[in-house]
Amino acid sequence: MIWLVLLLVSGGFLWHYSTAPGAVGAPVTKAPAGMDVDTHFRLVMFLHPHCSCSRSSVGNLNHILQTLPADSDVDVDLYFFRPETVPADWHETTLWTEARRIPGAVCHVDPDGRRTTEFGVATSGHVLLFAPGGARVFSGGITSGRGHDGENPGGESLSRLLCGLESAFESRLAIEQNSFAVYGCEIVSTADDENRKTQ
To answer: How do the domains of the chain map onto residue ranges?
Structure first.
């Protein structure tokens, strides 16, 4: 009987964890100075290389990009957090390898999460999309839970925006209604942040 109770409790904990979104942070609403968004979309995703939940985010992004029309004009940048105190290859995980396989995507190392902090992002798997001119038209996750593949509100909205089937106004309403929760691990932890401040 005890084992059954333990099984139910652990199962409930895992279910709660898988469906609990991460912190949204305070994402920027315009592309930072120096980012090339004059004539085309710019999509950026922020990742913790050791977050197993984010494999679904990377997989869903790959699927979305491969289903876009051939004439779609979008640049894709993926930023991988790496503390400056770890070995140089610390970020070269399975997630990094899978992300590098996405056609057209450029993977960057983000030392100490400086770009992550600059963009106001907190959780691995967070996607920002900037329209030509620099206005942010999408912010959030593209999975329905931690490690969940397949269709979800965020992914569908992102795809529609890139295909020109959804307006920035419609996307803004969805963001305000919290439709695009991010399911993943904290990118820059409090401990990481404190260590960075004392260096």
So the answer is: 25-198
Please list the pLDDT of the chain residue by residue as tens digits (199 residues). Answer: 554 433 333 333 333 334 677 888 999 999 998 898 888 899 999 999 999 999 999 999 999 999 998 878 899 999 999 999 999 999 999 999 999 999 999 999 999 999 999 999 999 999 999 999 999 999 999 998 655 566 788 999 999 999 887 777 777 766 765 568 999 999 987 445 434 333 3
Dist. CA 78–CA 47, nearest whole Å: 7
- Please provide the CATH number assigned to the domain covering 25-198: 3.40.30.10
- The residue type found at 121 is V
Are residues 66 and 103 in contact, defined by beta-carbon separation less than 8 angstroms?
Answer: yes
**Which stretch of DSSP H or E encloses residue 155?**
helix 153-162
Answering whether pTM is above 0.90, one says: no
